[in-house]
Amino acid sequence: MPLLHRPVQAAHYGLGAIFPVLVLAPGGWHAPGPGLPRRTRGAGETLSLRWCGPAADEDVAPHRLAAASLDCPPDITEEQLAAFADQLPAHLRVIALRPSALIGDWSTRPGAPLPPLKTIVLTSSRPLTWS
């Protein structure tokens, strides 16, 4: 699936904090320690772009993740990943993330603000009666 059509996902490390990510590559990566993820044989972890900014700015996170992902080459190599990571704006990081850490669409994450309620106005020329 092209990056342009991938939704921003909600993810967690199992500690209760939920953060937005955009999956750049569905597998084949791992993080051996500090620094950038590296290619691995087998399924591995996802290569993901993570929002690391303050919670107060989470409303802009999906737009910033999507915009930054446009600069990510398809089938990115480790060398390309280093160049990509160097040009990322503040509060965005490249991480390796196990697929089980993804919990669904960011807009429907646990604790997400509810969409505004719509007001429905009923009109009738007859009086309303309840039975």
List keywords for this structure.
six-stranded antiparallel sheet; 14% helix; 6 strands; single chain; 2 helices
Please summarize what this structure is.
The protein is an alpha+beta fold. It has helices at residues 61-69, 78-86, and strands spanning 9-12, 18-30, 38-39, 45-51, 92-97, 102-105.
Helix content: 10-25%
Number of E strands? 6
What is the chain-wise order of helices and strands? Answer: EEEEHHEE
The first-to-last residue Cα distance is 54 Å
Give the biggest sheet. Answer: 6 strands, antiparallel
How would you describe this structure to a colleague?
About 15% of the residues lie in helices and about 25% in strands. It is elongated and about 70 Å long. Strands 1, 2, 3, 4, 5 and 6 form a six-stranded antiparallel β-sheet that branches. By secondary structure, the protein is an alpha+beta fold.
Topology (SSEs and partners):
Elements: E1 9-12, E2 18-30, E3 38-39, E4 45-51, H1 61-69, H2 78-86, E5 92-97, E6 102-105
Antiparallel strand pairs: 1-2, 1-6, 2-3, 2-4, 4-5
